[in-house]
Write a structure and sequence with these properties.
Distance between the termini: 19 Å
Shape: elongated
Helix content: over 70%
Radius of gyration: 20 Å
Structural class: mainly alpha
Largest sheet: none
Number of strands: 0
Order of helices and strands: HHHHHH
Strand content: under 5%
Mean pLDDT: 90
Length: about 180
């Protein structure tokens, strides 16, 4: 494989690892928000921002962690035939599914960019009593989709190499870049 491809794979994998490890801590932020909600209701105080803040945190968590999940190969896979195939056959099958994923993520990114542009241009707010601006979460969501797209391309390069009998980087358990 060309050096540029190998450099791309290493760089994107490193970025996905850093962002994914950051995103893991968002679960604790969400837990803190929900714990505060429970405690405040004990004292008959119900902040209007709690539910939406927990939803925004969860959306950031799973979209920013998507590329990391792909890097670790920890996403759900139906393994009826796949487990019996050779690494080259798996690489070929993964190449086909990577193309489908990239196609989907491109359209998702286009929609995310359009939605973010709209939120920024018109100052879009959520229809709730809190009415938070939606631009920050839409920016985070679009960034997460972009990272997943970059990671999907990295996966495609790895799958093509594996289908050719090469190894330019395999999913790891999170050890080192």
């Amino acid at each position: 494989m060309p050096r540029a491809v190998i450099a791309y794979v290493r760089y994107v994998d490193a970025v996905s690892r850093v962002v994914g490890r950051f995103a893991m801590y968002l679960v604790f932020v969400m837990m803190g928000v929900l714990l505060y909600s429970s405690l405040s209701r004990t004292f008959h105080v119900s902040p209007i921002w709690i539910v939406e803040m927990a939803q925004f945190t969860m959306a950031a968590y799973y979209l920013l962690g998507g590329g990391y999940s792909m890097l670790l190969d920890s996403h759900v896979r139906v393994d009826i035939f796949y487990g019996r195939w050779s690494p080259r056959q798996r690489g070929f099958a993964d190449t086909i599914t990577a193309f489908c994923l990239i196609f989907y993520l491109i359209f998702l990114l286009i929609g995310g960019l359009s939605s973010t542009e709209y939120a920024l241009e018109y100052g879009q707010k959520n229809y709730s009593s809190w009415a938070p601006p939606l631009a920050p979460i839409k920016i985070i969501m679009t960034f997460g989709i972009l990272l997943m797209l970059l990671q999907a391309v990295s996966m495609l390069f790895k799958d093509v190499a594996r289908a050719r009998g090469l190894d330019i980087g395999t999913p790891s358990s999170g050890a080192g870049p």
